[in-house]
Amino acid sequence: MWDPTVYRRFGAERSRPFADLLARVGAETPRAVVDLGCGPGELTADLARRWPGARVTGLDSSPEMITKAAALGARADFRVADVRAWRPGPDDDVVISNAVLQWVPGHQDLLRRWVRELPAGAWLAIQVPGNFDAPSHRALRELAATGPWAGRIGDLLREAPVDDAPGYAQVLTAAGATVDAWETTYVHLLPAEPAAEHPVLRWMEGTALRPVRAALDDPAWQEFRAALGDRLAAAYPARDGLVTFPFRRIFVVATTPKETAP
Ligand SMILES: C[S@@+](CC[C@H](N)C(=O)[O-])C[C@H]1O[C@@H](n2cnc3c(N)ncnc32)[C@H](O)[C@@H]1O
Questions:
Q1: Can you give the CATH number for the domain in which 155 is found?
Q2: Range of the domain at 20
Q3: 20 to 30 Å CA-CA from 2: which of 71, 111, 206, 259?
Q4: Could you give the CA distance from residue 48 to residue 51 in angstroms, rounded to a whole number?
Q5: Residue-level pLDDT, tens digit, the chain, 262 residues
């Protein structure tokens, strides 16, 4: 289950890649814009503001996220749906999926299909985290594989479920799209209060730790959290009241071929 409140911690840091992704989408007057895995909807509302003439739809598999999004009152239609079942419509000139496809194994097949089925001259823009080898995720996997945790959550944690930027470029170019792919490492400087929990632990609770939380009862979860917090404090020490948290992200913007004049 996704918790929109926990996910919105560090909202400014999380929205920056979305803005950087959108900056490379050149659509001027799209007929319809779809946000796949829209989460709590604030970023979908940005899409509606950017393209006031477009029909904007936000889809997400989490009913909690869609309830939050619908309550925004944004000029967008929000619906519970799984991106794996989504098919592009004939007016879907812009499709965005920000920080979602890392949760969808085999999403490269979806990307191929979407590129084939999108209308001519459409834009498909995705961003996924590329931090699965970062100390945060290594600490999580190592802890999950040790002692009492191994049998309970060891299988839940995935090795890098995403490609790198050249990998996505290859997949989408082979499917016939024109591709703009890149990666960026953001250096987040997270405030660290002396008596508070480690900020990287608080960050991970909103996303990567969700499957672990769901698999453990309360006492086990508190124990796991504390042990992970210790490892994160060693991997990301606070200096001058700040924790430096580098975060690599992978971006791909693909356009489908324009219709050629007969
Ligand atoms: C990290 S959040 C990103 C939310 C939003 N795109 C943003 O940038 O703030 C990931 C979202 O993907 C959604 N999600 C994960 N798997 C999905 C699937 N198969 N179909 C639809 N949504 C999915 C989750 O429910 C969650 O809201």
A1: 3.40.50.150
A2: 4-255
A3: 111
A4: 5
A5: 667 777 677 888 889 999 999 999 999 999 999 999 999 999 999 999 999 999 999 999 999 999 999 999 999 999 999 999 999 999 999 999 999 999 999 999 999 999 999 999 999 999 999 998 999 999 999 999 888 888 778 667 766 689 999 999 999 999 999 999 999 999 999 999 877 899 999 999 988 898 889 889 999 999 999 999 999 999 999 999 999 999 999 999 999 998 766 6
260 falls within a domain: no
Counting the structural domains of the chain, the total is 1
Do 38 and 59 form a contact (C-beta atoms < 8 A)? yes
Residue 261 within any structural domain of the chain: no
Helix (H) or strand (E) holding 94: strand 92-98
- Asked whether 51 lines ligand 1 (CB < 6 A), one says no
Q: Is the CB of 182 under 6 A from ligand 1?
A: no
Asked, for residue 262, whether it belongs to a domain, the answer is no
Q: Does the predicted model carry a pTM greater than 0.85?
A: yes
Residue 43 lies in a domain: yes
> Of ligand 1's atoms, which has the minimum distance to the CA of residue 127?
8
